């Protein structure tokens, strides 16, 4: 049986190459330099390292001048192109839904014979951990409480710090963390997965331009695209790691001092650098273990910890209030979704584009190469429809429940007069908002400690998944790279974060990283078209006489069963994963 499956796999792989791969002599990483345990692209790897070193030197050397320049550029882009961000995200939502529910939804990533590399649960755990798990830990309390105190402009009719303000606060938070960001991630992930697994092109951003550039993706146009992607990914991760450990440091100090009443853990630059070193060490071990041995296991652990913390608060917290606010806020969100999606505030009293939404859209778009490429890497074997529904809806629905549980509990405390969250937020910032809320319920020390652990493990998964993405980009798009190279990028990311933290350039570099959202928004608009061209071409081949004749030949040899459903030919290739077949 094993020999039969191996033979079938070789025949179906050959079918995929013969009919679907572009006519090109190039292969991913075919010009790579292999030396000292590395397998690197001869241009992207060294140029990326040089630009990273130069940018860090300029940022730290110029200090406030660099920070002011980045902030000015960021403000100009947001005020001038905020409308474009809002329009682009709506286009992305429409495009990815079209791909899912049109005839192209039946196309399988990797080809008709492709099997799933990971179980549904492991797949969900990894995409969620890489996507926004860490953000939900920090903002699930602070963001709804901010809107609870100051009602967003779109919901201007609600009175602050009332039940009505609570409903719209959660709905506005759902908007920023729901379907819209996952549509961005899903579009990028689908495009990269399709062109890599179905077309045999490198697993890098350059491959999405094959329909427009052809062989030129292997030249400087492709190099520039990948270099910008490396820049955005590394600095986005490094700044998040650097700024995030400040929140972990403060949170640990709050739990140890204010909740447990023991000696407070010191806060400051050097404790945070020590935290970066610890997190980087764990991430290095995970990334060295590989995608299946390290990242998958840690992501699964993250999900279990999240379920544990979520279940705990649902039990000890205001259960009925949480569930009621969840349903009500989802209703407000769905009812307002279309209008919110196009709201700029230009015609309102305040004028101008709504700043928080534009900031979030720029941030999600800037992070989309990292998250999208990681999602692409783990999604082989799923149909386009299954991919889109999984990426777009499942994480969003879980986020709604999470935000309702933690944000709703904080709102309940304020409405009931227990308070403490708003005062902690105003005195210490968003760093301690979740811990201050958890402290109002039983076993606050235990839940606060679990929340701190979860924040750390999310940082680790973001770090090692980001390192894997940079590995793909700097190895010419190879799916597997040497362990030495994986370790190198994990350590480099931690080192960049530590240097910037020590030199005071983290905030400035975060602004610069988010600014890359504008060129990536343009790239994603082009990507929508190139993915459409690719899916259309794939569908035409699947429906062609040549494909049908090839399937008949395989059928005659006993390797394929063909089922006719109307005018459509459905193949059942022996040894393939039957799950998801249409």
Give the number of helices: 20
How much is the radius of gyration in Å? Answer: 24 Å
Largest sheet: 2 strands, antiparallel
CATH architecture descriptor name of the largest domain: Up-down Bundle
Instruction: Assign the CATH class of the largest domain.
Output: Mainly Alpha
What's the CATH topology name of the largest domain? Sodium/glucose cotransporter
Number of domains: 2
Provide a concise account of the structure shown.
The protein has 582 residues and is mostly helical. The chain has helices at 2-20, 44-62, 64-101, 120-131, 133-149, 163-177, 179-198, 210-213, 220-259, 269-316, 319-341, 355-377, 384-415, 421-428, 433-438, 444-474, 483-503, 506-515, 517-542, 545-556, and strands at 33-35, 38-40, 560-565, 568-573. The chain is 73% helix and 3% strand.
Describe the structure.
With 582 residues, the protein is mainly α. It has 2 domains: 1-30 and 543-582, no CATH class; 31-542, Up-down Bundle (Sodium/glucose cotransporter), CATH 1.20.1730. 73% of the residues lie in helices and 3% in strands. The protein has helices spanning 2-20, 44-62, 64-101, 120-131, 133-149, 163-177, 179-198, 210-213, 220-259, 269-316, 319-341, 355-377, 384-415, 421-428, 433-438, 444-474, 483-503, 506-515, 517-542, 545-556, and strands at 33-35, 38-40, 560-565, 568-573. The strands form 2 sheets. The protein has a two-stranded antiparallel sheet. It has a two-stranded antiparallel sheet with strand order 3-4. Helix 4 crosses helix 10 (269-316) and helix 9 packs across helix 12 (355-377). It is globular. The protein starts with a helix and ends in a 9-residue tail after the last strand.
């Amino acid at each position: 049986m094993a020999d039969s499956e191996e033979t079938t796999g070789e025949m179906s792989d050959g079918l995929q190459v013969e009919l679907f791969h572009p006519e090109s002599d190039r292969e991913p990483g075919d010009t790579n330099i292999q030396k000292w345990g590395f397998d690197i692209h001869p241009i992207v790897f060294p140029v990326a390292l040089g630009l990273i070193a130069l940018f860090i030197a300029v940022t730290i050397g110029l200090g406030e001048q660099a920070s002011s320049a980045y902030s000015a550029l960021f403000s100009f882009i947001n005020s001038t192109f905020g409308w474009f961000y809002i329009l682009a995200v709506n286009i992305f939502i429409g495009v990815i839904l079209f791909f899912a529910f049109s005839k192209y939804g039946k196309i399988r990533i990797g080809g008709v014979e492709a099997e799933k590399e990971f179980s549904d649960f492991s797949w969900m755990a990894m995409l969620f951990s890489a996507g926004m798990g860490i953000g939900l830990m920090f903002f699930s309390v602070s963001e709804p409480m901010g809107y609870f105190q100051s009602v967003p402009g779109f919901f201007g009719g609600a009175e602050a710090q009332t039940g009505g303000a609570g409903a719209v606060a959660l709905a506005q938070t759902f908007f920023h963390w729901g379907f819209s960001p996952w549509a961005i991630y899903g579009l990028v992930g689908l495009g990269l997965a399709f062109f890599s697994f179905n077309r045999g092109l490198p697993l890098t951003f350059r491959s999405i331009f094959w329909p427009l550039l052809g062989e030129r993706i292997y030249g400087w146009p492709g190099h520039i695209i990948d270099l910008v992607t490396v820049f955005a990914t590394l600095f986005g991760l490094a700044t998040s790691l650097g700024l995030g450990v400040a929140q972990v440091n403060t949170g640990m100090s709050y739990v140890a001092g204010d909740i447990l009443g023991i000696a407070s853990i010191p806060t400051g630059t050097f404790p945070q650098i020590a935290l970066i070193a610890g997190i980087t060490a764990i991430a290095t071990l995970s990334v060295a273990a590989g995608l299946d041995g390290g990242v998958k296991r840690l992501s699964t652990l993250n999900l279990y910890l999240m379920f544990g913390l979520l279940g705990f608060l649902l039990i000890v917290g205001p259960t009925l209030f949480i569930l009621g606010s969840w349903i009500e806020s989802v209703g407000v969100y769905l009812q307002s979704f279309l209008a919110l999606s196009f709201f700029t505030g230009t015609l309102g009293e305040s004028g101008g584009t709504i700043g928080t939404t534009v900031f979030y859209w720029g941030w999600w778009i800037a992070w989309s190469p990292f998250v999208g490429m990681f999602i692409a890497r783990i999604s082989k074997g799923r149909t386009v429809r299954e991919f889109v529904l999984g990426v777009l809806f499942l994480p969003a629905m879980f986020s709604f429940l999470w935000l309702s549980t933690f944000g709703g509990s904080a709102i309940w405390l304020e409405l009931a007069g227990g308070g403490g969250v708003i005062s902690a937020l105003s005195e210490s910032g968003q760093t301690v908002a979740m811990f201050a809320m958890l402290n109002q319920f039983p076993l606050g020390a235990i839940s606060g400690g679990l929340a701190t652990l979860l924040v750390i493990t999310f940082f680790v998964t973001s770090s090692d998944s980001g390192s894997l993405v940079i590995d793909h980009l700097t190895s010419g798009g190879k799916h597997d790279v040497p362990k030495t190279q994986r370790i190198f990028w994990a350590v480099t990311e931690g080192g960049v974060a530590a240097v910037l933290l020590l030199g005071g350039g983290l905030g400035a570099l975060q602004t610069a990283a988010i600014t890359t959202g504008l060129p990536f928004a343009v790239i994603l608009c082009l990507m929508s078209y190139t993915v459409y061209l690719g899916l259309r071409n794939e569908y035409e081949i699947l429906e062609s006489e040549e494909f049908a004749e090839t399937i008949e030949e395989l059928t005659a040899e006993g390797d394929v069963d063909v089922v006719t459903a109307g005018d459509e030919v459905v193949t059942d290739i022996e040894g393939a994963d039957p799950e998801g077949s249409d």
